[in-house]
Amino acid sequence: MFLELAVIAAIYICIIYHPKHVLRVVGVIAIPFVKLYVNRRVANGLEDSSRKTERFGIPSHVRPFGKLIWIHAVSVGEVLSVIPFIEEFRGINGNVNVVLTTMTLTAANLIKERFPETIIHQFIPFDIFQWVRRFVKFWEPDAVFFVESELWPNTLFHLAEIGIPTYLLNTRISSKTLKRLQFAKKFFNFLPFKPFREVFVPSKEMKMRIMELGAQNVSVTPNMKTISKMLPFDDEIAASLKYKFRQRCVWIAVSTHKGEEEIILEAHKKIKKSCENVLTVIAIRHPERAEEVTGLCDTFGLSSIRHTVAKEERFEIQEDIYIIDQIGCLGNFFEVIDTALICGSLIPGIGGHNMLEPLHFSCNILTGQFTENCEDIYQAVQAVCPKVSGVDDLSENIIQSINTYRRTIAGRSNKNFISSWQRAIKQISLTVYWTPQSIYRMKK
After folding, report:
1. Helix (H) or strand (E) segment spanning residue 416
2. I need a labelling partner for 91 at 20 to 30 A (CA). Which of 234, 365, 384, 396 fits?
3. Domains in the chain, ordered, with CATH?
């Protein structure tokens, strides 16, 4: 018993006083398990088999000459939010090279579609010191930007250790995450935001949270997602969708998560009692769930068709549910559908998604009750974005919108929000600290 307690006490002391070394040892032990995990993700279609070695820090692209910044955005939402930042930053800093890393395959596909040559995409290596060191040594970034709440300790420790300036953009922490981080601070002396040269947050409340957890330089800037540009759309594809939907009363549920489709399908059945020809379009947040959602429609006794099937045909849609199982095409749907429900907000634990994308098309928008991750955006749009709670409330609002709303109000997104964040980008761009190249020579 005494020996066991002594071992536990020794481990605890090591974690408190030598967290960097403990994490590196744990990382070495985890390598074979992480490789098995990556292979499993490849088998499930969640990783690109031809690029899986990028997750081990092995590059698949040549480093271009000149200054280079590394930006990490987890998935599609973060990628879309960081696009205006990249454009503004490159305009101010002489078209600096950009390596944009993501975690998900859907985000990689979006970058390939939107930026086929101008931005280098890589999958971020797992947070194991040897892989992170390999990645950083190859790319030699002059500055690093993480988006929202990406806190990879081995990566942050290494960047700080070799002197590369690291910034955190659009930082958001949920109440649940805050409690976990406060626990880590109290019992393990872990200060996750200490390695950042500067942290940019969307509210004063968030600033206080971040400073409690080690951040030393914190600036309040508007949420980056408020300057997302109008999604691209194709006139011909939009016209084809309009033809297919022409006999139907259509509404769209955007960025749905597991647990939300049931609510939407129940609402569809209630709406159908008042509007027999209703068509519900479901844009799944993660397209790989298409088969699961198709099965769910069958369970509810509703017919469905996938976009990847329907887009190849020129016929009217007769099914109850139209499932969008492809990324990068939402603009075409916003162009022809007047009513949009922004999901990630119908059940707790997700925090909502960006309401501004359909507003650029002057859609009538609704959202659920759980929007804690988007409250700063919601404050700007609440006058035109009612919150709905439950199947009855949702179906009543959709029926009213289908019957009464027509696009007559344009450009309702808050332009002052947009200009203020653009000013913030300029400030960041002009004051960013660049890595002295001598650092790389010294470390090689």
Report:
1. helix 415-431
2. 234
3. 53-170+423-443 (3.40.50.11720), 235-411 (3.40.50.2000)
The DSSP annotation for 10-43 comes to HHHHHHHH-HHHHHHHHHHHHHHHHHHHHHHHHH
Q: Calculate the alpha carbon distances from 279 to 113, 256, 317, 418 in Å.
A: 29, 16, 8, 34
Residue 255: closest CA among 224, 283, 295, 297: 283
Per the structure block, which two tokens stand in for 8? 């536990």
301 burial type by CB count under 10 A (0-12 exposed, 13-18 middle, 19+ buried): exposed
Q: Is the pTM of this model over 0.85?
A: no
CA 259 – CA 282 distance, rounded (Å):
13
| Tokens describing residue 376 | 């700063």
In whole angstroms, what is the distance from residue 365 CA to residue 352 CA?
13
SS3 (DSSP) at 386: coil
Residues 6+ apart with CB under 8 A from 173: 149, 181, 206, 209, 210
Asked if 199 and 217 touch (Cβ cutoff 8 Å), the reply is yes
